[in-house]
C-alpha cells in the first residue's frame, strides 16, 4: 500500500529537488515516540493503567499474605502466586484494549484524528504507533509485575522452558487480540468524556467473572460460560498454566488448561476485531457529518 | 512552484445534502462554483450554515460530495493520496487538542510526515509562539492554540492552505499579527482559501471575496467591487420636518448643494451625512439581512429617494 502511494508521489512531484514522502515504518516509529511521550506524561494513565496490576498484587498479597494459602489436589501455593497470573492477564488487557480504546476515542473526539488525516501520515503508521505504545507498556509492566512478585512476595517463577514458551504465545496472542479489540471498541464511546467509563466498565466486570480475582470454581456456571466468550478468561487461564503447578488444572472449569481452546479463542478475537476494526474505524466524530 | 497549472482549486456545480429519508434532506451545498488561482488569497464569506465549512471539507478530502466536479491541485480530493496531502495544509475550525506534547514537539512530529517540511522552530517563531515552544499544548490559551493549529498547517510547506475561520476568538492584536502572518505566507507563494465571517478580515487579506448563502455563491469580486457599483452608490441622509430622509446618488455633492440652497444661506441642514456603503453593508444586503438603515438603503434595485422607517 505504502509503496504504490510513494510511487505516485514521486511522479506528481516532478519539480527538481522534490523529495520523497517519508516511509510508513519510519513514521510508525515517530508516532510511537509521540504516543509514548503522551502516555508517560498523562499521570492518570500511569496510575490507573500501568501501575494497577502491580498495586493490586501488592495489596492482595499483603492482606491475605501467608494466612490464605491455596490448595488444590494436595498442592499448595501462596496467595501471591495464585493471584499473579490474573494480574498478568489484567495488565495485558489494560495496556492494550483499555489504553487504545480510550486514547483513540479521545483523539477522535477532540479532533486530533481528523487533523492527522489531513496530513500525509499513512493510517498504518498511526496504528503502528499505537502498537508500539501497547507493546512497550505491556512488556515493562509485565516485567515489573514478575519482578515484584518474585522479589517482594517470593513467588517462584517457572524454570521449565516449556512454560515460558506457553507464556510467550499466550502473551503475544493476548496482546495482539487486546490491541485490536481496543481499536475496534474505540468507536463505541460516543464522546471522549464518556470514553473511560464505557471502556473500563466491561473490563472491570470481566475481571470479576473471568477468574481474575476469585477462583473460577467459586463462580456460577452461566457466568463462566459467558466470560468464556471473551479473551480475558483465556489469557488468565493461559497464564495460570504458566505460573501454577499442574495440579491446579483440576480447579479449572474443564479440569484442564485447554491450550488449544485458548489459542483458538484468542485467534478468533484477533481476526474478528481486525475485520470489525478496519470496517468501523472513523477519523471523525459520530456527529461530524 | 511544483508545476505550472495556474489553477489551484476548481469547483463546478458542487452539491452536498445531509439527512435521511425519514427526517428529510437539507441541501448544505446546492450547486456551488468556485475558482482559486495559484498565489491568490480567496475569502469565502457567509453566515453560519451557508455551507462554507462543508465546501471546504469536501475540498480537503474529508467529506464526500453528492454531485459536481472538484479539482484541488489537479486532483480529485476523493481519490487523492498521501502525495496530494503533502501539498495541502489544513487549519480546521474546531480544535480542542488536549495533547501532553509541547508546542515544538507537536510541530516536529507533524513535520516528520512531509517530504520537504519547514524548520519546526522557525514555524513556531513565525506564529509567535517562541515563548511557548516548550509549553504543553494542553495548557495553551484559545488564541495560542489557534496559532499552533496554523503552525501545524504550514509546517509541511503547503502549496495550498485552507484556513477555516482562523481568527475566531482572537483579541484584536492577535488578529492583526495573524493577518501579517497570512500576508507573509502569500508573499512566499502560498495559495490560501480562507473562510471567515469577519468582513474586516476578508477586506484586509483577500484578493477576492466569494459570498455564499444557502449553499450557492451569491456574489464575488475584490473587496472594493463586491456587489457591483450599484451597491456602492453613496447615500445622502438628512432630516426634513423631523423626518429622516435618504437619497442614493452618484453625485452626492450636487444633492448636498441642492439641500443647502433649499435651507437658505447660513442655515444648517439638520442631520446631514454622506455615506458610502461599507463592505459590511454590501455583504449584509447580499445575504439578505439589513439590520441598519444604511444597509437597507444600499440594497440594489432601488436608486431613488426613500423614506426610512
From TrEMBL, chain A:
Q: Does the keyword Ion transport apply?
A: no
What is a biological process (GO) this protein takes part in?
Answer: response to antibiotic
Q: Does the keyword Phosphoprotein apply?
A: no
**Topology of this chain in the membrane:** Multi-pass membrane protein
Query: What is the first-listed, main subcellular location in coarse terms?
Result: membrane
Q: Identify the keywords attached in UniProt to this record, alphabetized.
A: Antibiotic resistance, Cell membrane, Membrane, Transmembrane, Transmembrane helix, Transport
Q: Name the source organism.
A: Promicromonospora thailandica
What are the residue boundaries of the ABC transmembrane type-2 domain, all occurrences included? Answer: 44-284
Q: Indicate the family of this protein.
A: Belongs to the ABC-2 integral membrane protein family.
Cellular component per GO?
A: ATP-binding cassette (ABC) transporter complex
Q: Name one GO molecular function term.
A: ABC-type transporter activity
Protein name per UniProt: Transport permease protein
Look up the coiled coil feature and give its residue ranges.
Answer: none
**Residue intervals passing through the bilayer:** 46-64, 84-106, 127-152, 164-185, 197-216, 256-276
Q: Where in the cell is it found?
A: Cell membrane; Membrane
UniProtKB/TrEMBL annotation, chain B:
Instruction: Tell me yes or no: is Disulfide bond among this UniProt entry's keywords.
Output: no
Membrane topology listed for this record: Peripheral membrane protein
Q: Spell out the SUPFAM superfamilies in the cross-references.
A: P-loop containing nucleoside triphosphate hydrolases
Query: Which GO cellular component terms, listed alphabetically, does the Swiss-Prot or TrEMBL entry include?
Result: plasma membrane
Question: What protein am I looking at?
Answer: ABC-2 type transport system ATP-binding protein
Q: Which organism is it from?
A: Promicromonospora thailandica
Which example biological process does GO assign this protein?
response to antibiotic
What is the protein's major site of localization?
membrane
Q: Does the keyword Lipid metabolism apply?
A: no
Q: What is the lineage of its organism?
A: Bacteria, Bacillati, Actinomycetota, Actinomycetes, Micrococcales
User: Which residues does UniProt call coiled coil?
Assistant: none
PANTHER family the record matches: ABC TRANSPORTER ATP-BINDING PROTEIN, ABC TRANSPORTER ATP-BINDING PROTEIN NATA
| Protein localization | Cell membrane
Amino acid at each position: 500500500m505504502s509503496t504504490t502511494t510513494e510511487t505516485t508521489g514521486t511522479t506528481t512531484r516532478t519539480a527538481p529537488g522534490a523529495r520523497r514522502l517519508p516511509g510508513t515504518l519510519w513514521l510508525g516509529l515517530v508516532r510511537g515516540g509521540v504516543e509514548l511521550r503522551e502516555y508517560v506524561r498523562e499521570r492518570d494513565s500511569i496510575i490507573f493503567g500501568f501501575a494497577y496490576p502491580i498495586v493490586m498484587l501488592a495489596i492482595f498479597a499483603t492482606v491475605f499474605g501467608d494466612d490464605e494459602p491455596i490448595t488444590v489436589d494436595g498442592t499448595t501455593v501462596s496467595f501471591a502466586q495464585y493471584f499473579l497470573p490474573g494480574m498478568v492477564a489484567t495488565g495485558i488487557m489494560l495496556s492494550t484494549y483499555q489504553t487504545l480504546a480510550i486514547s483513540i476515542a479521545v483523539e477522535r473526539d477532540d479532533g486530533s484524528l481528523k487533523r492527522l488525516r489531513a496530513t500525509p501520515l499513512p493510517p498504518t503508521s498511526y496504528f503502528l504507533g499505537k502498537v508500539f505504545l501497547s507493546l512497550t507498556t505491556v512488556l515493562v509492566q509485565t516485567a515489573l509485575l514478575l519482578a515484584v512478585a518474585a522479589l517482594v512476595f517470593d513467588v517462584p517463577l517457572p524454570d521449565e522452558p516449556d512454560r515460558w514458551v506457553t507464556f510467550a504465545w499466550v502473551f503475544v496472542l493476548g496482546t495482539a487480540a487486546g490491541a485490536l479489540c481496543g481499536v475496534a471498541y474505540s468507536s463505541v464511546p460516543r464522546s471522549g468524556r464518556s470514553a473511560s467509563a464505557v471502556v473500563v466498565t466491561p473490563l472491570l466486570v470481566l475481571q470479576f467473572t473471568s477468574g481474575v480475582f476469585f477462583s473460577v470454581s467459586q463462580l456460577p456456571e452461566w457466568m463462566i460460560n459467558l466470560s468464556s466468550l471473551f479473551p480475558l478468561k483465556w489469557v488468565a487461564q493461559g497464564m495460570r498454566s504458566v505460573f501454577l503447578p499442574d495440579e491446579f488444572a483440576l480447579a479449572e472449569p474443564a479440569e484442564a488448561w485447554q491450550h488449544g481452546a485458548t489459542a483458538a479463542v484468542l485467534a478468533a478475537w484477533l481476526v474478528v476485531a481486525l475485520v470489525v476494526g478496519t470496517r468501523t474505524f472513523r477519523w471523525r466524530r459520530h456527529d461530524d457529518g | 512552484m511544483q508545476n505550472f497549472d495556474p489553477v489551484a482549486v476548481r469547483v463546478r456545480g458542487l452539491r452536498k445534502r445531509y439527512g435521511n429519508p425519514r427526517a428529510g434532506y437539507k441541501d448544505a451545498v446546492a450547486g456551488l462554483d468556485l475558482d482559486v488561482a495559484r498565489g491568490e488569497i480567496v475569502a469565502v464569506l457567509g453566515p453560519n450554515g451557508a455551507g462554507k465549512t462543508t465546501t471546504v471539507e469536501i475540498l480537503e478530502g474529508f467529506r464526500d460530495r453528492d454531485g459536481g466536479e472538484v479539482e484541488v491541485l489537479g486532483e480529485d480530493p476523493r481519490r487523492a493520496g498521501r502525495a496530494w496531502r503533502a501539498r495541502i495544509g489544513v487549519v480546521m475550525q474546531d480544535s480542542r487538542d488536549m495533547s501532553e506534547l509541547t508546542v515544538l514537539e507537536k510541530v516536529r512530529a507533524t513535520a516528520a510526515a512531509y517530504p520537504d517540511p519547514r524548520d519546526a522552530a522557525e514555524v513556531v517563531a513565525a506564529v509567535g509562539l517562541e515563548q511557548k515552544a516548550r509549553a504543553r499544548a494542553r495548557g495553551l490559551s484559545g488564541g495560542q492554540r489557534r496559532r499552533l493549529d496554523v503552525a501545524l498547517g504550514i509546517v509541511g510547506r503547503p502549496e495550498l492552505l485552507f484556513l477555516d475561520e482562523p481568527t475566531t476568538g482572537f483579541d484584536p492584536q492577535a488578529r492583526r499579527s495573524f493577518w501579517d502572518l497570512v500576508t507573509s505566507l502569500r508573499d512566499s507563494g502560498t495559495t490560501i482559501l480562507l473562510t471567515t465571517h469577519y468582513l474586516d478580515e476578508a477586506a484586509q487579506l483577500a484578493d477576492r471575496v466569494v459570498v455564499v448563502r444557502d449553499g450557492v455563491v451569491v456574489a464575488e469580486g475584490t473587496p472594493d467591487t463586491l456587489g457591483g457599483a450599484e451597491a456602492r452608490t453613496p447615500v445622502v441622509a438628512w432630516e426634513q420636518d423631523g423626518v429622516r430622509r435618504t437619497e442614493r446618488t452618484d453625485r452626492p455633492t450636487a444633492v448636498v448643494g441642492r439641500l443647502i440652497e433649499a435651507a437658505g444661506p447660513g442655515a444648517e441642514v439638520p442631520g446631514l451625512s454622506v455615506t458610502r456603503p461599507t463592505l459590511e453593508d454590501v455583504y449584509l444586503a447580499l445575504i439578505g439581512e439589513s439590520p441598519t438603515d444604511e444597509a437597507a438603503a444600499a440594497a440594489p434595485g432601488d436608486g431613488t429617494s426613500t423614506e426610512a422607517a
